[in-house]
């Protein structure tokens, strides 16, 4: 039984070139010899996994965009501005109602009824 056969040099070069072309092996010339070094596939696989994890995290970040500190601060400022505007309009309404009832001798309930302001209206201040 023959355990080792001599290989044809040309067939080894062809196989090596095929592996290099497929990206499975890198070759380096050292002196007068060419050495084949297996491609580190774990690095490329790790890069793919990291890319997929990054995409998943970006998707999660977009889904949880409402919890973004910048957006939360913007909403807080918008709420404060809206509350101030509502208080200002309420004050304006009450001042005008008081002025109109004093100037014209009309009851406040009649003015509210005419303006369509319900009895459930309350001052928010």
UniProtKB/TrEMBL annotation:
<dbReference type="GO" id="GO:0005634">
    <property type="term" value="C:nucleus"/>
</dbReference>
<keyword id="KW-0175">Coiled coil</keyword>
<protein>
    <recommendedName>
        <fullName>Meiotic nuclear division protein 1</fullName>
    </recommendedName>
</protein>
<feature type="domain" description="Mnd1 HTH">
    <location>
        <begin position="8"/>
        <end position="35"/>
    </location>
</feature>
<dbReference type="InterPro" id="IPR040453">
    <property type="entry name" value="Mnd1_HTH"/>
</dbReference>
<feature type="domain" description="Leucine zipper with capping helix">
    <location>
        <begin position="70"/>
        <end position="123"/>
    </location>
</feature>
<dbReference type="Pfam" id="PF03962">
    <property type="entry name" value="Mnd1"/>
</dbReference>
<dbReference type="InterPro" id="IPR040661">
    <property type="entry name" value="LZ3wCH"/>
</dbReference>
<keyword id="KW-0539">Nucleus</keyword>
<dbReference type="Pfam" id="PF18517">
    <property type="entry name" value="LZ3wCH"/>
</dbReference>
